[in-house]
Amino acid sequence: MDEISINVLDKPKLRNPVLIEGLPGIGLVGKLAADHILDELSAVKLAELHSHSLPPQVMIADDGTVNLVGMNFYYVKGGKHDLILLVGDFQGITPDSQYRLTERIIEFVKDFKVKRIYTLGGLGTGNLTKTPRVFGAATSKDLIKEHKKYKIIFKGGGAILGASGLLLGIGMQHGIDGVCLMGETHGQIIDAKSAEAILEVLTKILDLKIDMKALAEKAKETEAQMMRLSQMITQNQEAQEQQKKYLSEPPTYIR
Amino acid sequence: MDEISINVLDKPKLRNPVLIEGLPGIGLVGKLAADHILDELSAVKLAELHSHSLPPQVMIADDGTVNLVGMNFYYVKGGKHDLILLVGDFQGITPDSQYRLTERIIEFVKDFKVKRIYTLGGLGTGNLTKTPRVFGAATSKDLIKEHKKYKIIFKGGGAILGASGLLLGIGMQHGIDGVCLMGETHGQIIDAKSAEAILEVLTKILDLKIDMKALAEKAKETEAQMMRLSQMITQNQEAQEQQKKYLSEPPTYIR
Amino acid sequence: MDEISINVLDKPKLRNPVLIEGLPGIGLVGKLAADHILDELSAVKLAELHSHSLPPQVMIADDGTVNLVGMNFYYVKGGKHDLILLVGDFQGITPDSQYRLTERIIEFVKDFKVKRIYTLGGLGTGNLTKTPRVFGAATSKDLIKEHKKYKIIFKGGGAILGASGLLLGIGMQHGIDGVCLMGETHGQIIDAKSAEAILEVLTKILDLKIDMKALAEKAKETEAQMMRLSQMITQNQEAQEQQKKYLSEPPTYIR
Amino acid sequence: MDEISINVLDKPKLRNPVLIEGLPGIGLVGKLAADHILDELSAVKLAELHSHSLPPQVMIADDGTVNLVGMNFYYVKGGKHDLILLVGDFQGITPDSQYRLTERIIEFVKDFKVKRIYTLGGLGTGNLTKTPRVFGAATSKDLIKEHKKYKIIFKGGGAILGASGLLLGIGMQHGIDGVCLMGETHGQIIDAKSAEAILEVLTKILDLKIDMKALAEKAKETEAQMMRLSQMITQNQEAQEQQKKYLSEPPTYIR
Q1: Is residue D159 one of the residues assigned to a domain?
Q2: Residues of chain A found within 8 Å of residue C250, distances taken between Cβ atoms
Q3: Is residue A249 one of the residues assigned to a domain?
Q4: What is the ipTM of this complex?
Q5: In a domain? residue B229
Q6: What pTM does this model have?
Q7: Strand order in the sheet with D134-138
């Protein structure tokens, strides 16, 4: 396996495809939104990406079988644009791997003649709000003009970290347009409301029809599940800390 | 020396060999179990692995001689399956090195036509229990079906970190079956009881006969030794912290 | 994109050019000074450097468009020496990348036959002073002799960290003279006074005319902006910490 | 400059040379001892090693000139064995670079047909003692036997971290004998007494004559200097922490 490997599972012909990125980030806003599109539009798996820069682990599925951690590409055919969805449980774990993964992803979607990317994320404000706003940033002034009618707030300043930012920045170098949609969110909760806000904008832009009912339920489920898991993680972290005393440190250090 | 180098010491012909991994992890469960097989079945050293991704140090043996830190392969001939054991004091110290080490290990054991891997570990629960259960995860549904008769609990969810997980995940990519056996354990103690529980299952699966008496004693010894060493480590850590003030920081910083 | 890539935007002929480095460091002294030269002398953009060793993010400009994080080269023609300015928002984020970036920068400016480098920085003392002194270090005794008339204090001891140091150390290996000018500064404030002090020395050395009025204002602006941003960062950091519980750690760890 | 580069300054013919390593470690014991040999025996500089894995900085000499951080090789001719000394202000800053640096050092000294290495360090005990003992570890039982007459205590257990350990471990792979001498030391003080203890043993082994008077003074000097510098470092660290708020974190994070 190379440092980054993509296992292509299908070879669909896609019409005017756009890439939608929804990897984990603040409030899980982008991930919730992209995972919801995936489910509601019955997306088909296109490819799996594995990398030495993802956490060194396998995930255990509900039936007890294991899968190597990865990012997944899905596609949806038949709308105004065909869609490629990029989803996963993790982003690259080192800064330089974020660059290398992004470059590899751009290279992969260029084969499908992707000319536009929408990256989805959350903008943490520390405040709770019932009607989260949607902020935006884009790779050109023309794109901003084109998107203003969707009530996206393009205010300058700040930075976009990780895949949501780099896919725009490196996409630009390859002549690909990019828009980042960021849902206003508290930052410390998994925010289905904020995911719904960006989905409402995105579905208008791409002329998609998506039922939002399941989203809130999914977020509740996710949250409950995360709570339980969080406890187990804390226990395991304590265990690992304890372990380190014995293991990652040798018996007696002499230098 | 390459970034990962394997020094092969013996060239045995092995019959239907399975790989058993017992590197350090939670509760030292996997390590205790694999080291016990090693001793009880008088395993023969097959190869030493050294790597730039293991801690940069030598271990001092009882007689005062030093050995470069490494992982070791041993073999046992004559059972239903011949065995290759993978043991050591450390796992790779960076996430990407975990991938590279695992790939190199898979490549090495493929030369012996290994078609199945058992990885051994602990599942930290934060609870003390007298009769630790054995949990499992596997690379296919068929494998799970095959192993259910051994009272292994295959419940979904969670992740398997490090060599115990990656050997399954990367093994799959090479057509190698894999099962991870995880002994229920508190997480903050070195747990011979849990190691015994997974050994009882593993010996049934592989039709091995292993006396368990020495295991508990060995764990006690290990624990006492670890306690003493832990004190020395704390002292040395404090010393190193102190040192850093002088050394890893230059006299006056200007930027 | 290579690990380090330089996108050349202009091919000016430069006469006896000197490189002036003003990347971020203590008190932002060097950055404030170099950015001020840039503005006051209407410098022209020469090239953009991008690197896998800069933070993985895009910056959002005032108009809502994004730019990949980078270092920028500018030039100024027509003085005693033509100038190449090296500015940016970040230094390389790993120690080894600091070396590789510096080597690439040296290689780039050698094409313009740069024979001298001035690096600008702050010397943190923990004290507030109204009349900050300017300290210096240089690549040879002759250079020190040459610069003593400018009231630069060359006292030995200490170290120069990051680009301001390495450009001298690696420049030497390529036969390039180098002087580091360090403005006395508290260390915990953005210090326009200290930037002014080094600019007063540097303008005398290079026979430049630069109005200082805008500098103090710019520093005030920068400080106000930083304050606001600092709050947002803190919020986002808390959000990210929270996020890590869910994301960078998998649901249940088993090893 | 390569990732590791050695600039050879002299090409002496050395007779039965042994390598003596005295890089920084616990109590600065090894460094103090090796630096003292350097001064007392008027060693001649043989080569400079620079590396991307040393801190990215230049040191400012007493006269205000700068030097890129490095390790230095010196030689001494005319004794029972000619000596090569390896000294410096830093060790490699990442675990894997410790391996790569050690391999490069071994390769370099093999050109001089070095067949034996003495590495010098401290063994931190947390206790103050007036008559520090000297502990040892070696690459073979024969070496231990050979050295027992020098009152070195060879007790098993523990580990030797960093260059002092790896030079033995990797040296072994190249057929080079190695002994590590470790002076008993508290761990939190710069310990000239402990350095003297290992020098007394080493001078007997190698039949050297070295005056110890200057050692204690040098250690006092070093300690005073370190104290003052330590204060400056603390100030600068605080300044850097403060800086990070502004710099290593971008204004607003969105993911």
Answers
A1: yes
A2: 55, 57, 59, 69, 89, 233
A3: no
A4: 0.88
A5: no
A6: 0.89
A7: D4-8, D44-51, D71-76, D83-88, D18-21, D116-124, D177-185, D134-138
